[in-house]
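Need tokens for this chain, all 326 residues.
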Amino acid sequence: MTILVTGVAGFIGYHVAEALLAQGERVLGLDNMNPYYDTKLKQARLHRLERHPHFSYVFADIGRAPALNAAIDKHGDTIAGIVHLAAQAGVRHSIDHPTDYVGANLSGHLNVLEMGRHLPRLRHLVYASSSSVYGNSRRVPFAIDDPVDRPASLYAATKRADELMSISYAQLYRLPLTGLRFFTVIGPWGRPDMAYYRFTQAILAGEKIEVFGDGSVERDFTYIDDIVAGVLSALDHPPSRNEEMPHRLYNLGSDRPVSLNHLIDLIERACGHKAERNVHAPAAGDVRATWADLTLSRADLGYEPKTPLADGIEKFVAWYRDYAQA
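Here are the structure tokens for all 326 residues:
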């Protein structure tokens, strides 16, 4: 049997594929190598995966249904699980480039659902949502049954739309689906557009860091290994097809939100240098705080984040030093 991972050259996709391979699974990875950030990093992730004999890669754009179906044509009878992580990322990018989010996040998600419902051996489709769906909710921590009808960015709106499409497919076709709301994921091989990556890059280069707002916003930063553990556990716990709606939603976070100022302190400590700041007005689409209520994730998935933020930042900085010098 094969596990299909979309967005396999992305940050989370790479780590999930690596973990699945380590468990002895066969992995088919799809990615269109979107140039949203430097594709050299994506190529480096992919190169590491391609060393494994049970990994296969297909270049494909999920926003194009014929290309997606052609990509999995030879594997369709063997795909038992899908981890759907391909998406156009970035809250701020969605403010200035809204049309970039139609292909992957809306059409692409629909195409994956359509493909999934026709796969004869598919047991479970797990897909990425986002903590962004909670918007500027004043109720903390964010619980799965909180209202999510006021997204603060188009990116968040597309992720909520993905959840709603998935709910409809689960009901219509008894397709077992699980959506995972990720909370600010950090770690080695991370995304260069993320604040922790940009801050590290600037500090080690002796440059000022660009800070939006006064640094008091809080985020539930979550280390990549904890996220991967949650994804794999979710994949192993599909809803029953016999249910009226075989669909689940879970938060995957750390349950330990910290301020942006504290994050900068940790990065300075790991880098061994103090940061000089260029301070800007708060960015459009940014929310005041995120904080994951993990009650359901703990109960249903046995999910328990283990990596303290300080340790995660130290691991990231160590990786970045090696990667930048390679």
